[in-house]
Specification:
Number of strands: 0
Number of helices: 12
Structural class: mainly alpha
Cofactor: heme
Pathway: Amino-acid degradation; L-tryptophan degradation via kynurenine pathway; L-kynurenine from L-tryptophan: step 1/2
Distance between the termini: 52 Å
Radius of gyration: 22 Å
Keywords: Dioxygenase, Heme, Iron, Metal-binding, Oxidoreductase, Tryptophan catabolism
Subunit structure: Homotetramer.
CATH class of the largest domain: Mainly Alpha
Catalytic activity: L-tryptophan + O2 = N-formyl-L-kynurenine
Amino acid sequence: MAEPQVLSSRDPGGEPDGARLFPAGEHRALTYSSYLALDELLAAQRPRSEEHDEMLFIVIHQTYELWFKQLLHELAHLQERLETGDGQHALRTLKRLLAILGVLVEQVHVLETMTPLQFKGFRGRLEDASGFQSAQFRELEAVLGRRDPRVLQQHPEGEARQRIAAAMARPSLYDSFLAYLALSGYEVPPRADLGAPLEPSAETQRVLLQVYRDDGEPSQVAERMVDIDEAVQEWRYRHVKMVQRTIGGKRGTGGSSGAGYLMTTLHTPAFPDLWEVRSDI
């Protein structure tokens, strides 16, 4: 296997980037390791037991958090593109989002290589730590349109809780999609309360029906939005089945109801209008 390339670049004057950050004689060239902060990243796995499989559990969940960060980054960019009417770049970003969501589903298969007995070997060391405490996932849900202030109770006062609350207060991805349709010439009824959950709207569905009949770029964007919704639902389903095969009907860590609660999140679309309009096409 080839050695990873050393990442480096130089400014117009010929000095490596960052050279001026160090006094004369103390310059450290940018390397693959320093650019990616590998010393910090690879030191972030701290198992609390001697069980072999705990490392896999930690790496998988840390990787999820990195992908959640990238999803939020891409979704913010997507909303900007939609709200300026830039359908072409919105489609490109939607394609990337779908690829990332596909990776999240595949990661479940890796975690499922761990048997219930192997998980039991270190599960007690998790104490009250639970995936329900993932602030980034709650923020992701809010960007996709979830408006449930009860989730804030799972997070102490601080930056993470503020990010979730802010995401629930600003326009969701679907609101940005409706703004894009308006810029594309469609008479989209405004949503009166951005802080309210998305509910099916017969008036909006009439607009979407015309979008599909016109069969232009907006209809392509609409279909990719459906793909995003379906991919999130697929990940939720795979997550539920993984929890069921790992802990069965036991309560989750942190006092959660485990698979029981996760089952209630299935089959609930983020963008209901885009599904209901299909009955009329």
